[in-house]
Design brief:
With about 240 residues, the protein is α/β, with parallel strands linked by helices. It has 9 helices and 9 strands. The strands form 3 sheets. Strands 4-1-5-6-7 form a 5-stranded mixed β-sheet, with helices on both faces. It has a two-stranded antiparallel ribbon with strand order 2-3. It has a two-stranded antiparallel sheet with strand order 8-9. The protein is globular, with a radius of gyration of 20 Å.
């Protein structure tokens, strides 16, 4: 049994952007339009094709709607993002109400995928995350990106998350540690002695540029895609990560 966990945010927005049309009404008057029926049909066709190509038995589509806990933690989160294509919210509503897409208030589609991928009880068998977002490389398991299925080990997922904690994410609008690019971050992480506690090394990088452990903790929480243990299923809210 193989289940695809599909990033519905990327799928809906990328499909809508391709199918959006400009109309010139003359006299310098332009409008944007989109045939939402065409977007819906294309989204479903894409999902069916993915299922066929990846020999999957079923798919679960995950979506984001509204603000999330990251917006509450950090007001600048995703503030620089541009507008969504015409009809985006309608397509998402339709996927939730008519195709069983998964949405949890206060968290993102990425988090829903992360929770489902790391919960051994909700979905049985193989689970393959389908997303081009590099954030999903912080989740251990199988992921389909760039035309291939790769397996991310727990150790690789941890290193990827720590790298993101140090470098930040300009697309999502959080800064990370000043002066810390991917090469420098990976070198720092690679040089942590085996068996040593890694959190003090992350904090040390922030303190070396005049910041604090609280600054490091904020970036770690923003960078962390929720695992099953990071979500309170009873109260339906995220559990903010803390160092142990």
């Amino acid at each position: 049994m193989r289940t695809l966990l599909i990033d519905g945010d990327i799928l809906v927005v990328s499909t809508g952007a391709v199918l959006e049309r400009e109309i010139d009404w003359g006299d310098d008057e332009w409008t944007l339009t989109c045939d939402v029926k065409e977007v819906k049909a294309t989204v479903i066709d894409t999902i069916r094709r993915l299922e066929q190509d990846l020999e999957a038995d079923q798919s679960v589509i995950t979506l984001s709607m509204g603000t999330t806990f990251r917006h509450e933690l950090f007001p600048g989160y995703k503030k620089g993002r541009g507008r969504k294509p015409v009809g985006t919210n309608e397509v998402k509503r339709w996927l939730i109400e008519e195709h069983g897409a998964k949405y949890k208030p206060g968290i993102e589609a990425d988090d829903v995928m992360g929770i489902l991928a790391t919960n051994p009880r909700i979905i049985k068998g193989e689970k393959v995350i389908v997303s081009q977002d590099k954030d999903m490389l912080t989740i251990p398991g199988m992921i389909y990106r760039d035309g291939d299925i790769i397996t991310v080990s727990p150790e690789e997922a941890l290193r990827n998350w720590l790298t993101q904690t140090l470098t930040g994410d300009t697309t999502d609008g959080y800064p990370g540690c000043p002066g810390m690019g991917p090469v420098k971050a990976k070198k720092l992480i690679a040089n942590i002695p085996e068996g040593d506690r890694w959190w003090p090394h992350i904090v040390g990088a922030y303190e070396s540029v005049g910041l604090t452990e609280e600054d490091a903790l904020m970036q770690a929480r923003l960078a962390r895609i929720l695992h099953n243990e990071d979500y309170d299923h009873a109260n339906k809210e995220p559990i903010l990560w803390n160092p142990t």
